[in-house]
Fold these 2 entries.
Entry 1:
Amino acid sequence: MVLLTGHNKIKTAVFISGTGSNLKSLIKFSKKKVSPISVDLIISNNPKAIGLNYGKIYKIKNKIFNFKNKKIAEKNLLLELKKNKIEMICLAGFMRILSKNFIKKFKGKILNIHPSLLPKYKGLNTHQRALNNKEKYSGCTVHFVNSKLDSGKIILQKKIKINKYETANSLSKKILVQEHKLYPKAIFKVFNF
Ligand code: GAR
């Protein structure tokens, strides 16, 4: 096994829009000696994202991009990524769809986590839709990002049982706990650890 030190870890940007609990788990993971990545930049489309606090706590640079004009946002975002020598992107609750052009520039280097067993329940409201369909199981998926929504090659999934009295809220909490474990595992898998 190759140990990567702080200097030769893969420079990673994490994109968020909200709470940032996956960001926190990725930062904690990145600080471990065995982690192949370092989190060097936090990107948010939402200036009020609670997750931006982790930038302050862990002293990681963060930048906000207003996606109302996606073309301009992505152009500036690409410049920022280049300036910080970012090699990999982890989407962690980032609620904007990146353009084909942007994805092409980071082909095979963008990962996403989604709270369902893809290809089931792409998009929003996953938990409620799974409950409405009386699913017995749900879970989470880490996958490569391609130009179609929640559709790239699957890296890892974790399946969990839906209980009789489950609500969208309880299911979301239960799956989030698994997401925090699954994302680091998927990163290990990507780097063949
Ligand atoms: C997570 O459940 C993540 O899987 C989901 O948003 C939540 C973000 O939580 N992402 C998507 O639905 C993307 N399609 P967090 O901000 O606490 O990490």
Entry 2:
Amino acid sequence: MKNIRVRFAPSPTGPLHIGGVRTALYNYLLAKKHQGAFVLRIEDTDRTRYVEGAEEYIKRALEWFGMSPDEGVDQGGAYGPYRQSDRKEIYLKYVDDLVAAGRAYIAFDTPEEIQAMREREQNKGVHSPKYDASTRMTMRNSLTLSAGEVTGLQQQGTPYVVRLLVEPGRTVEIEDLVRGSVRFDTTELDDKVLLKGDGMPTYHLANIVDDHLMEITHVIRGEEWLSSTAHHVLLYEAFGWKDSMPSFAHLPLILKPSGKGKLSKRDGAKFGFPVFPLAWDAGEGEEAYLGFKEAGFLPDAVINFLAFLGWNPGGEREIFTLSELVEVFDPAHIVKSGARFDYEKALWFNQQHIMRLPDDALLEWLRPGMSAYYTDWSEEQLKRVIPLMKERIKTRNEFYENTRFFFSEDWPYEEKMIRKKWKEDSPAHLQNLLAGLKQIDPFEAAACEATVKTFISENGLSFGAIMPLLRIGLTGTLKGPDLFQTMEILGRERTIARLERALEAFPRIKG
Ligand code: GLU
């Protein structure tokens, strides 16, 4: 088999949506699985939709996920340039070839003339009129004008486009890797514009020329491009490149959490979850978005989640890192039906990945955010807290939020529980226990546990009479990691000081 070459070909029209990341991912996985090439091509020929910063964003997102292109705008490569606006001249030659071969033609129609044609057709009862075989001979183009007229108009600088000549009455068929055989009736297709009035190619022309010149073997992209594929096949035919046409795989839609309708960028704000990988801030007055990164996700967890939106490896196993996915990826297991975006599932994947990550990797991941939450924390403390918390958090932010009592003295008591648990004999018990805890040396979890348990049993008390008070006194809340480990990490001094504070505060709260 030929070396596999795939491309991720985003248009820099805004931040990369999570669906785009999935497209990049499937391309990347196929390339890496077969030691092929993953190419990043920037499709920026539509200058009206160009958004400043979007190309940078796309590159940063790929980098965050660890999906670096083998060839691309920054990497270079033997098939460059990889930004379509830098390839303008290349397309002109190919479009000239098509016109010379009679597979495309020049059209001078103004928008008003095209509108008038539509109205004429509609009056005749045509439902959705098109510039096609049924209308092209009524228009101003190189098929209806003489060669001299065409040259004359061009010399006067009359704006024109180049259109593909679509022959009606044929069936075009592709064998899609996901959808199987897909057929199109060419009578339904219009004479697509290939070259625009500004001399820029349209997406269709540039995409086909580039896929051919870059020797792309597989086109993996979203379902929304399936209908364009008919024109693409006709273009391959027109150029005489049909034999080296790439294979196509059109990925299923990503659906809203309800399963109804396509997931949109607005849904993130609406339901309170990210739909972009990284934060995007387009400046004043524009909508800003937070990404999965800022929501406290590990890149591998997002990748794992996205991989399973529309694909599965078969079998029970669900947790994979990016490199493990490379091993098992098989496009034959991509599903046809839309995949529901389930944020709870994304959180679950993140939790699973956090649990599996070695402590030193977690340290690297957590360290940079610490100072935004705490002024007074040490790396030493953080190192000790990580093993205690790693099975208890779904996001990075949850780690910071749920470990306040380790790194700060500023946290509230769950007062309702104090009112419920603080009894007449509680002050005496807590006093005595405190006296016992003061004796412990070294102040370790096992010794704390032994002291507390012995105290409870020797005084004929129940766990429920002591443990909740101890926990709230030390951490403010009833939820949390192992209490004796917590005490060891806090150390004797802070444990004692907090319990002394509780002895004063709890009676006041009880009132
Ligand atoms: N530039 C197109 C996009 O933004 C690429 C579609 C394709 O992969 O052919 O998605």
